[in-house]
Structures are given as structure tokens and as C-alpha cells.
Design goal:
alpha/beta; binds FE2/S2 (inorganic) cluster; binds adenosine monophosphate; six-stranded mixed β-sheet; single chain; 305 residues; binds zinc ion; globular; 10 strands; two-stranded antiparallel sheet
């Protein structure tokens, strides 16, 4: 298998692009693809300070590495959730983030927020003792992560929060939203969510990259990352839809990309429209000052009551 650009040994074949590349050309291709997405959706510019939410996994560490190499002002944020579950999940993933900085970008700044130390309880305990976390801690966890990301972005004056969501993540969510015709979610599912009412701007620079490409990037760049998924994510609906889409992709390469990117194009061109379902009336929470639709005290603050 030879690189289509230079004829050297290729390290990856991307059937959906009918392209196979050697290591240096693959790195270059990931950078160009990501830069194009950043420009196309006007995510941020080199003048902006960006907060990259890093989980210790391949997507977010690859993203952070790439943004730094592209010359962006990118600081990292790791939220320690206190998840052990016999595999030392949170401690190991934090370690990956520290090692990333030490070994690859000693100049980079990593912000760490430890939920247990700062608020008194980690996610597993918090979820077990709250009604909304009884079945799975993921909803509580999502709420906590969103709140902390927003807080750090606001306090630190960052122009945007960047997450490592890739095309597989987005296509799986799109499939789920479509199968349930969740039009409000379909209206909001986007590579960029603008700042509104005190909610920081959110961007996903890897939306055009397959998960497998983000993993290959990490491998080729020699980035160490945590292979384990969050132990609570096994059997999640998102993973189920990802598998379905991957089966489709096997028989028709590019199906995943087609599904998601054509949705974005159709919606952005106004060929399909979805209503958000009522204006979001955001008010500052009486305790923490972060925006909430509930009026009074936000869902995050109510968690700790
Ligand atoms: P997930 O929902 O686990 O697929 O993660 C989606 C994105 O959220 C990742 O790519 C990261 O950018 C971010 N993220 C997930 N977990 C954390 C964490 N513990 N700390 C900071 N960011 C995170
Ligand atoms: Fe939050 Fe798994 S990362 S429950
Ligand atoms: Zn090459
Ligand atoms: Zn609050």
C-alpha cells in the first residue's frame, strides 16, 4: 500500500476519501481537514484563546496537539470526575493529560478541576444519591462537565471551548435524534454553538474526522492516551448507533460522512429547517450566576443541595 502523494509506505487507507497516505502526509491531511472546518464554521482565529476540554482520550488529546501545532493559543481543561470502578479511570486519564504536556508540549497550560475535592463528592457517589442519576451517572456527569467547562471558560476569558467530538460521535447523535424526530435537538446539533446568555461558545473542530482517523493521528504522533472508555459508557445508546453506522460504512464507504455532512449542508442552506421549540429564556442562577432556563437556582446547584 503506497501513499498517494509521495509513493512511500502508507500508514492509513481512508476508503471514504479513496485516499491512502504515509505518516507525514496523513498528519498534514488531518491538519488541513481540521483547519478547513475551523475556517468554514468560523470557530476561532489565532488571536483567540481557546480552552480544549481534554478527557485523556485519543480525540481530545489529538485535537489539543494539533491546535498547538497549528499555532493556536490552546489551554487544556481536565475535569476529574472521581471515577474508579476498579480501573482507576479518572486517575489514569489525568495522568495521560499530564504526560501529554510533559512529553509533547511543556509550554502548554493544563487546568485541572477535581469535582470531589472542590464540591465534596465525585460523580459515582453523587449520582447514586440523586434521583436523576439512579439508572446511569452519565446525565449527572454531563451536567457537571458542562457547568465546569462553562465556568472555567468564563472565568478565564476564553473565546471558545473546544471538544474532541468527531464525525462518528456526531453521526451517532444525529441518527438518534432523527430516529426519535427530536426536532429541537436537530435544530441545535452543530459544529459551533454561539455564546448566548452567558453560555460560552462551543466548537468541535474534529467534526469532519472519523474516529479511526483521530486514533491514527494519536498513534502516528506518538501520543499516549487512555484506551479504556468511561466504565459507565459501555452499552450506551451512542455506542449502539456508532456500531450500526460502522456496519453501514463497511458495505458503503462514506455513508457515515454523507449522512452527517449532508444534514449540515441541507440545514445550513435552509433546505430543511427545524424549530428549536420555544425561545430559551436564560436567567442567571441565584447561586452561581451561570445561565439557567429554570429560573431561580440552576440544575447544577440543585444537585448539591
Ligand atoms: P465524551 O462525551 O466522553 O465522548 O466526550 C466528549 C468530549 O468532551 C471529549 O472529546 C472532551 O473534549 C470532553 N471531555 C470528556 N470528558 C472530559 C473530562 N473529564 N474533562 C474535560 N473534558 C472532557
Ligand atoms: Fe461521565 Fe462516564 S464520563 S459518566
Ligand atoms: Zn506521502
Ligand atoms: Zn447555579
Amino acid at each position: 500500500m503506497k501513499c498517494h502523494k509521495c509513493g512511500a509506505a502508507a500508514v492509513i487507507q481512508m476508503r471514504q476519501h479513496r485516499l491512502q497516505l504515509c505518516a507525514p502526509h496523513f498528519i498534514e491531511w488531518v491538519a488541513t481537514t481540521t483547519q478547513r472546518a475551523i475556517d468554514a464554521y468560523q470557530m476561532f482565529t489565532p488571536a483567540d484563546r481557546v480552552l480544549v476540554a481534554v478527557s485523556g482520550g485519543k480525540d481530545s488529546l489529538s485535537l489539543w496537539d494539533l491546535l498547538l501545532n497549528l499555532g493556536y493559543q490552546a489551554a487544556g481543561l481536565y475535569i476529574s470526575l472521581g471515577i474508579d470502578e476498579g480501573i482507576d479511570y479518572s486517575a489514569k486519564s489525568l495522568d495521560m493529560c499530564h504526560r501529554f504536556v510533559l512529553e509533547h508540549h511543556p509550554e502548554a497550560r493544563l487546568h485541572v478541576v477535581d469535582v470531589g475535592a472542590e464540591y465534596g463528592q465525585g460523580i459515582p457517589v453523587l449520582a447514586r444519591t440523586r434521583r436523576r442519576g439512579q439508572t446511569k451517572p452519565c446525565a449527572v456527569c454531563g451536567l457537571v462537565k458542562r457547568h465546569i467547562m462553562n465556568r472555567v471558560a468564563r472565568d478565564g476569558g476564553f473565546a471558545a471551548i473546544a471538544t474532541g467530538h468527531n464525525l462518528d460521535d456526531e453521526a451517532a447523535v444525529l441518527m438518534q435524534n432523527t430516529l426519535h424526530w427530536q426536532t429541537g435537538y436537530l435544530a441545535r446539533q452543530a459544529p459551533v454553538l454561539d455564546e448566548r446568555g452567558g453560555l460560552a461558545r462551543k466548537v468541535k473542530p474534529f467534526v469532519r474526522l472519523y474516529e479511526r482517523e483521530a486514533a491514527a493521528y494519536a498513534l502516528v504522533r506518538g501520543l499516549e492516551y487512555i484506551y479504556d472508555e468511561c466504565p459507565f459508557a459501555t452499552g450506551s445508546t451512542t455506542n449502539f448507533y456508532k456500531e450500526l453506522l460502522n456496519r453501514l460504512e463497511l458495505t458503503s464507504p462514506g455513508a457515515k460522512q454523507q449522512f452527517y455532512l449532508q444534514f449540515l449542508r441541507a440545514r445550513d442552506a435552509g433546505r430543511v429547517t427545524f424549530a428549536e421549540g420555544g425561545d430559551l429564556d436564560l436567567q442567571p442562577c441565584a447561586r452561581c450566576g451561570q445561565p439557567t432556563t429554570a429560573g431561580g437556582i440552576c440544575a447544577f446547584c440543585r444537585l448539591w443541595e
